[in-house]
């Protein structure tokens, strides 16, 4: 092979152009399965680089295929998400959203740009063995675009052996990374609880079955599920986020509904928390001569890295920035990420790249958020160095 490409120098040379791409995407945000303009821009760029490009996978998803100069080697997938949030942006800078009610408030504009930067560098310097699949995914924000791409043949059409993802992370300093050997982010499930009592006059509570009283006991009791059922070293959350019931000061209603979310870091705890919530709801209602039902809305599974692949990511990041700037196995997040579906089908890993202090302008899903353009070269360098490491 020829002399090894320096990805840091190459990505810094591309920085100004990447910033233009990123701000253009930020200015034109598109939400789940509507990423038509973004997909077109990605497709145009990949084709201009000479890549084989496949569109319409997962509705608006794009896959670019780049073959290395040398035979053999691995087939690896690198994934970036493209969708924006249904959020009204409050920034006033020139590249703020031009679509009211839509905003790149999670940095997917930066993720897409960093992967495009890596594709540019590698297409111009394909000094590796194997094949790289650049996966530009739609609908990560609560609409399971990764699952849709898989259902539409992602891993059947492309012989991807390993798959990798990356997310910007506020609170991790600029120039730093975080890598987990196991759980990175939680599973997420929603639930609806319907409590049925026997309404009547508020001045005559002895003649009714009060569903508001039942709901109050349920709200309190659910907080014991995680504390008294999961190991103290495990992570789990049950939050009731909405209560609906009642219509007047002097009327005890017939029904009350509770709604919320469950988060956990492994499939066993996920099943246990749902099972315990259902039992608690049903029996608490019975204790007050009411009835109650629970309906679960299944969300994303937990994002769990494969240890060997995570170790490879750790080695690459430490080569880039040094051991002192890479956190190994920090506490996982109880947020969720649909890259989990890809990790259920192929070995791989998902890492965090520091986005700087968690100020208002750096907090994910905040209307003042903006991706930190200074990390674009580092993110692109990481992707290039990962390919160099895996496809040597």
What is the N-to-C succession of helices and strands?
HHHEEEHEHHEEEEEHEEEHEEHEHEH
Give the uncertain stretches in residue-range form: none
For the sheet with most strands, the description reads: 8 strands, mixed
Question: What average pLDDT do the residues reach?
Answer: 96
* Named CATH architecture of the largest domain: 3-Layer(aba) Sandwich
What is the total tally of β strands?
Answer: 16
Integer count of domains: 2
CATH class of the largest domain: Alpha Beta
Biggest sheet, strands in spatial order? Answer: 1-2-4-3-5-16-6-15
Descriptive account of the structure:
Residues 190-285 form the Peptidase M20 dimerisation domain. GO terms for molecular function: metal ion binding; N-acetyldiaminopimelate deacetylase activity. Mn(2+) binds at residues 106, 108, 141, 167, 365. One of its GO terms (biological process) is diaminopimelate biosynthetic process. It comes from Thiothrix fructosivorans. The protein is α/β, with parallel strands linked by helices and 392 residues long. It has two domains: 7-185 and 302-390, Aminopeptidase, CATH 3.40.630.10; 187-298, Alpha-Beta Plaits (2-Layer Sandwich). It is 35% helix and 26% strand. It has eleven helices and 16 strands. The protein has helices spanning 7-13, 15-27, 36-48, 108-124, 145-151, 154-157, 211-229, 267-287, 307-321, 339-345, 376-390; strands at residues 52-57, 61-67, 70-81, 129-137, 162-169, 177-179, 183-185, 187-196, 200-201, 236-245, 251-252, 255-264, 291-298, 303-304, 326-328, 348-354. The chain has an eight-stranded mixed beta sheet, with helices on both faces. The chain has a four-stranded antiparallel beta sheet with strand order 10-12-8-13, with helices on one face. Helix 4 links the parallel strand 3 (70-81) and strand 4 (129-137). Helix 9 (307-321) packs across helix 11 (376-390). The N and C termini lie close together (9 Å). The mean pLDDT is 96.
């Amino acid at each position: 092979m020829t002399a090894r490409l320096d990805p840091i120098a190459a990505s810094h040379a591309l920085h100004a152009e990447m910033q233009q791409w990123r701000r253009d995407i930020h200015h034109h945000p598109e939400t789940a399965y509507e990423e038509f303009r973004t997909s077109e821009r990605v497709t145009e760029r990949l084709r201009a680089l000479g890549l084989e490009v496949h569109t319409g996978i997962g509705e608006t998803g794009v896959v670019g295929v780049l073959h290395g100069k040398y035979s053999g080697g691995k087939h690896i997938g690198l994934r970036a998400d493209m969708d924006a949030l249904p959020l009204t942006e409050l920034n006033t800078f020139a590249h703020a959203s031009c679509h009211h009610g839509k905003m790149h408030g999670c940095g997917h504009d930066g993720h897409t740009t960093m992967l495009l930067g890596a594709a540019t560098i590698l297409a111009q310097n394909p000094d590796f063995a194997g094949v790289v699949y650049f996966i530009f995914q739609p609908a990560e924000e609560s609409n399971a675009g990764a699952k849709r791409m898989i259902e539409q043949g992602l891993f059947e059409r492309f012989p991807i052996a390993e798959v990798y993802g990356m997310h910007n992370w506020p609170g991790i300093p600029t120039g730093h990374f975080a890598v987990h050997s196991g759980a990175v982010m939680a599973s997420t499930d929603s639930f609806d609880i319907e409590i049925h009592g026997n309404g009547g006059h508020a001045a005559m509570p002895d003649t009714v079955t009060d569903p508001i009283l039942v709901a109050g006991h349920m709200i309190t009791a659910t907080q014991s599920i995680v504390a008294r059922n999961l190991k103290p070293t495990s992570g789990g959350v049950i939050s009731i986020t909405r209560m609906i019931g009642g219509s007047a000061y002097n009327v005890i209603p017939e029904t009350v509904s509770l709604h919320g979310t469950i988060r956990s870091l492994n499939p066993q705890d996920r099943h246990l928390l749902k099972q315990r919530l259902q039992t608690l709801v049903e029996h608490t209602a019975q204790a007050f001569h009411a009835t109650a039902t629970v309906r679960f809305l299944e969300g994303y599974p937990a994002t769990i890295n494969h240890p060997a692949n995570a170790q490879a990511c750790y080695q690459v990041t430490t080569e880039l920035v040094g051991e002192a700037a890479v956190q190994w196995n920090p506490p996982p997040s109880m947020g969720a990420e649909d890259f989990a579906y890809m990790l259920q089908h192929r070995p791989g890993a998902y890492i965090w790249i520091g986005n700087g202090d968690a100020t208002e302008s750096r907090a994910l899903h905040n209307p003042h958020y903006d991706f930190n353009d200074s990390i674009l070269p580092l993110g692109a360098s990481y992707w290039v160095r990962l390919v160099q490491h895996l496809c040597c």
